Amino acid sequence: MTKALAPYSGRLVSIAPTVVVLVKATMADVYGRCSKAQASRTYMVSAKVMARWIDCFTCEGRRDGGTFVRSKTDPRRARSGSPRKCFATLSRRGAIQIHQMRLTKRRFDNEAKHIDCCLPQVVIEPSFITEPVTRLFMPHSEKPVDQERIVERVQRHGDSIWALIEAQGMATRAPFPDPRTLRSFSLGEVAEILGVSGSYLRQLSIDGLGPTPELGTAGRRSYTLGQINELRDYLASSRPKEALKFCPRRRQGDKLQIISVVAGPASTTTSFYLAQGLALQGFRVLAIDLDSHGSLSGMFGYYSFGYPVHNASMYAAIRYDDDQKSIRSVIQPTLFDGLHLVPGSAELSIFEEDCGRLFRSENFKYPDASSRMVSALKEVDADYDVVVLSCGDGGFLTAGAYEAATGVLVTVRPEMPDIVSMTSSLYSFTHFVALIERAGRTVNHDFFKYLVTRHDPRDVSQQKSIAMLREPLGDDLLTATVWESDAIRQAGDKGRSLYELSSGSVGRSSYEQAMKSLNSANAEIMDIMSEVWGRAPFYVSQASRSTTAGKASSESRGLSK
C-alpha cells in the first residue's frame, strides 16, 4: 500500500519495485493554466530514500554535474523508441526534480491516451520516510503561508550578527586595514624622488635644515614619506623658482584631476601603482574602488581579514534611500601620507540593481545614476589634487566614472584577444557618453589615453601588436609600457607594492627594471596632468635622468649616509 504526497489520482504510467510515478492532468493544464514553473516540482529526500530511488532507475551523467535519471519500466519507449515522457534530475544537493518532456500540440493529441498529466507526483512507501511528509516532501508552492521565507530569515541573520558586532565595538573599526607600516626611504631614494643630489640632502641634514632623518646602521640616513613631504615644503620655500617641482599640488584655478581607469588587463594594478606613485611625488590623492569585489581595496590591505563592512563604500555616498551618507564618512587612510581610499564592497552591486530597477520604471533616466557620482566628488573637490577611479564591471557605476572624470586611462595587453576586448570597452564608452549627453549634460575629457600593460619586450608578436595600435591611436597611446615583471608578481604575492618593498625583497635587477617601467608610465601621466594645469612638463625628463644614473644611483643608495 502506498501513500501519495499530494491529492492527485490517475493511471500508473511506470511502476518500479519501491517507487511509483503517478501522473494526471488535462489538456487545459498543458496549454492553458499551467506555466513552465508549474510543469515541474522539486522534492527534497533523505539520503536513504535517494539511494533506494537510484536503485530503481538508470542514471546517466549530465554536463551540469547532475544525474539524469530514467525509469527502467517505461513501456512506451520499448514500443516506439521515442524519448520518455517523464524524467528526473538528481542534483548535487540531493534534490530530485521530476520533469515532463516538451510535447507539441499535435504529439500531445496523438499520445494523450498514453499520458494523462504534465504534473508528475512521486509516491514513496511510508517505510522509507524517515521524517514527516509535510517537512520532507512538501513542494515549495504548498508550504504554509505563515512560514518564514528564506530571504526573511537571512535578513534576520544579517541584522542579528551585525548587532552583535556593533555591541562589541568592532563595527567602528571596519573595514580593517592590514596593520602594517610603510618602510623608510634611503637617502639615495629620497634624492631620486625629489630630483636633487644625495650630497645636497646630506648637507641639509648636517646643517640641521629640514626634517631630521633617522640614522640607521653605520649612520645611514632614511626618511619616512611624511618627512619627504616636509622636505618638499622646505625646498619649495627655500627655492621658490622651483616650487612647483617640489610641491606640485593644485594652485588656485587648477581643477581637480579625476582619472577613470577602465576595467581591463592589469587595470586594478595600474590604479594601485598610479595612486601610490602620485602620492610619492607629493600629490594629494584619493583612490576610489568601484569594484564590488574590492580588488583595489585588497591591494591596499583592506578586507584581508576582519568583519563585514556595512555602508562603508562608495555605495553609501550614492545610494537612493535615506541611509545615504557623505563621501567623507567612508574615506579611509592608507600607509602613504597624502593618499586616501574609498573601499569597494559587495554593496556596490546593490546600487547596480537599484539603478536597473529604477531604469525600468517611468520616472528614471539612465544618466541620473552617474550624476550622483559627480555630486559626491564635488564634496571633496578642495581636499585632493587627483582622484583615481578604479572601475569594475558595473555599468551604472562605470557611466558615473566616465561623467565625473576629467581624463580616462584604458589599459591593454598587446595580445589580439585583449585588443578585441579593449575595442568592445571603447564602444561601451561611446554608448554611455551618448546617453549622458542625451540627458542634456556634456562630457568633456581633457585626455583619453591608452597604456600597454603586461608587455614582454622580447616577444616579437607583442611588438607588432603595439606597432599596429600606434597607427590608429597615435599620441593617445602612451610611449611608456608597463612590462610583465616577476617583481610585480612577487610583491603582489606578499600583499605589497614595489614602492613598499626594498630591492632585496624581490631581486635587485628585476626590481629596478620594474620600477623603471612603472615610473616611466606614471611620469607620462603626470606630465599630461601638468599640461592640463598649464604647467611645463618635466616628469618624463626627470625619470629619464634617474634611469640614466642607473647603476650609479643604485650604488649611491648603499654608500650614502
From TrEMBL:
Instruction: Please verify whether the record's keywords include Ribosomal protein.
Output: no
In its keyword annotation, does this UniProt entry include Transcription? no
Pfam families xrefs: AAA_31
Q: Which SUPFAM superfamilies has this protein been placed in?
A: P-loop containing nucleoside triphosphate hydrolases
Highest taxon in the source lineage:
Bacteria
Instruction: Give residue ranges for domain AAA.
Output: 264-416
Question: Keyword set for this entry?
Answer: Plasmid
Name assigned to this protein? Replication protein A (Modular protein)
